[in-house]
Amino acid sequence: MNNVYYIYDSAFGEIVIESDGCAITCIKTKGNLLPKGKKEADALTDKAAEQLFEYFAGKRDRFNVPLNPHGTDFQCTVWKALQDIPYGETQSYKQIAVTIKKPKACRAVGMANNKNPIWIMIPCHRVIGSDKSLTGYGGGLEMKRKLLELEQKNKL
Asked: What residue ranges define each of the domains in the chain, with the CATH number in brackets?
């Protein structure tokens, strides 16, 4: 497989989308990523960008591009659980830990969340503190707040 990436301008700033030719492997803001591969768009990066733009416009609440995040088995289990959090809703780190049958692994869930390579499509922004507070987010707490507000406003 040939890894490619492309930088897209969005309502939320420049985003880098990486593909391995079969699936999306990474989506991050430009400042949070050193891209891998050749700088060129492919059908997958374009489709992912199109779906993200629809999401930003409030016209999409689910994504259907193939994803292939690289991480440990535990991280991948957490990232799968994140994808089950409904659009416009939130869950706590504790709720995710219980979901994956590791109820004492709240901190580990937080660390896996922090390592999520696929911004928005694996919705780590939907995970909040047990006290309902906004907690760390790779794009910053202001970005997390904006994404959650977008989803609340456009909940279908």
From this structure: 4-56 (no CATH), 73-154 (1.10.10.10)
